[in-house]
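Worked example 3 (structure in, sequence out).
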């Protein structure tokens, strides 16, 4: 008996171009992203993974138990198989519905309606006594703090296209990212330079990657979440009391601040909280006292560009606006890190594990056009040809999963170059062949545009190599 990932045919989290948030008026001035005045933000996505044993699906719990107790082992072909030394094979229950997991390496299906029942866990934060813009993060002990002269380094200009290269050394370490963030000391009107946060110039929000203001703040979660429109405030003054102001981190780091309370119908919210006094605080769901945390220490992921032009990998702002605004642009001959979270250590969406998601652009597309919400069918931004997802299962499986897939929004777009996964511990490598427009699992290639490929990484490093076909 063999256990196979149906995810060999697909990748996690493809974002749907479905209206989700209405635009917010910044300082009384209406801003528009398109002719009808709506902001088109991606819907929360749900990823499915199916564990298949012979002709039956089994649950993720059974698969993990099999790995943990030795009844299942990984084969050289990238599939799980029953162990020859284990006491017995796992039971094969009657076919059940597909198990859900928001993890890389699985079929993704956008859910534009967001009408999901609230999960039982985690426990919601208690309702605040005041109805007017109650703070979600723990307030500072000083009711009206004054900014410390040395609380924040001097303001710096907006990031250049390769600012991440100046923040991260050759080993993937960011010294700025180790600095503890001073709660309640920096005004919401100032971007928090010097603490690892990577300011973004593309969005026209003073360095912020997105600004969200939940108008509904109940014990069951947030709702009626307004999102500040791109180019509304280049000075950053749209980050106002009650808002969550999101920021990027240089890869391989991930944002550490987001509220424990999330959207009650599946929306995600992330960033620093602007308290009622107009100062920035780590949100109450923070996973560190620093703005950024490093990805998995057990598996690094890099992108190596062997092409003649630059390529931008654009990571989604998640949890947050879910737009693809966090850039890694690698020039010819360059290598850059990609963020790769440990599944048990990072953000959980409705109790489910999450992965890092990237939109892979054609070579030569400028970063300010590649890593932003784009126009329909222009082949860049959220309409780029290919998506990439990655994470490390730091539970019983102790291995990583990285995937490639055609962007479901634009199946006629072509990437124009090859992608190959390399690494000593990569099982059944995943690759894209530009000459035939096929995604291949090892030597098996498919013409099915709904299929993708997923590689298991037993330990160590993965390099995503870009080359001419």
């Amino acid at each position: 008996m063999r256990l196979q990932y149906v995810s060999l045919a697909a990748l996690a989290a493809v974002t749907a171009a479905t209206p989700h948030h209405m635009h917010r008026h910044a300082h009384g001035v209406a801003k528009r992203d398109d002719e009808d005045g709506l902001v088109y933000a991606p819907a929360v996505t749900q990823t499915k993974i199916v564990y298949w044993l012979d002709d039956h699906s089994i649950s993720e719990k059974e698969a993990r138990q099999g790995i943990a107790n030795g009844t299942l082992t990984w084969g050289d072909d990238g599939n799980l198989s029953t162990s020859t030394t284990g006491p017995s094979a796992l039971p094969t229950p009657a076919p059940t519905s597909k198990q859900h997991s928001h993890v890389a390496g699985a079929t993704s299906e956008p859910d534009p309606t967001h009408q999901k029942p609230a999960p039982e866990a985690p426990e919601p934060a208690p309702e605040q006594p005041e109805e007017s813009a109650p703070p979600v993060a723990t307030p500072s002990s000083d009711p009206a703090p004054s900014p410390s002269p040395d609380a924040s380094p001097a303001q710096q200009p907006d990031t250049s296209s390769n600012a991440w290269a100046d923040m991260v050394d050759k080993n993937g370490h960011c010294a700025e990212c180790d600095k503890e963030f001073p709660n309640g000391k920096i005004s919401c009107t100032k971007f928090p330079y010097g603490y690892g946060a990577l300011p973004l110039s593309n969005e026209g929000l003073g360095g912020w990657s997105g600004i969200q203001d939940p108008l509904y703040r109940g014990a069951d979660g947030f709702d009626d979440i307004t999102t500040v429109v791109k180019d509304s405030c280049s000075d950053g003054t749209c980050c106002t009391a009650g808002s969550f102001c999101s920021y990027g981190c240089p890869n391989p780091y991930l944002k550490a601040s987001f509220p424990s309370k999330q959207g009650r119908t599946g929306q995600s919210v992330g960033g620093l909280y602007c308290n009622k006094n107009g100062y920035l605080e780590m949100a109450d769901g923070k996973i560190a006292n620093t703005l950024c945390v490093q990805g998995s220490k057990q598996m690094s992921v890099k992108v190596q560009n062997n092409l003649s032009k630059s390529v931008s990998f654009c990571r989604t702002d998640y949890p947050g606006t879910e737009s693809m605004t966090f850039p890694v642009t690698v020039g010819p001959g360059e290598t850059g890190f990609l963020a790769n979270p440990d599944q048990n250590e990072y953000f959980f969406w409705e109790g489910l594990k999450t992965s890092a998601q990237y939109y892979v652009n054609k070579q030569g597309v400028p970063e300010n056009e590649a890593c932003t919400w784009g126009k329909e069918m222009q082949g860049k931004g959220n309409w780029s040809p290919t998506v990439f997802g990655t994470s490390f299962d730091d539970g019983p499986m102790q291995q990583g999963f990285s995937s490639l897939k055609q962007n479901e929004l634009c199946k006629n777009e072509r990437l124009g170059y090859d992608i190959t996964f390399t690494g000593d511990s990569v099982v059944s490598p995943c690759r894209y062949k530009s000459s035939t427009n096929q995604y291949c699992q090892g030597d098996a290639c498919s013409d099915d545009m709904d299929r993708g490929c997923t590689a298991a990484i037993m330990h160590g490093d993965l390099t995503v190599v870009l080359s001419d076909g």
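Notes: Residues 1-49, 51-56, 64-161 have pLDDT under 50 and may be disordered. The chain has three helices and 31 strands.
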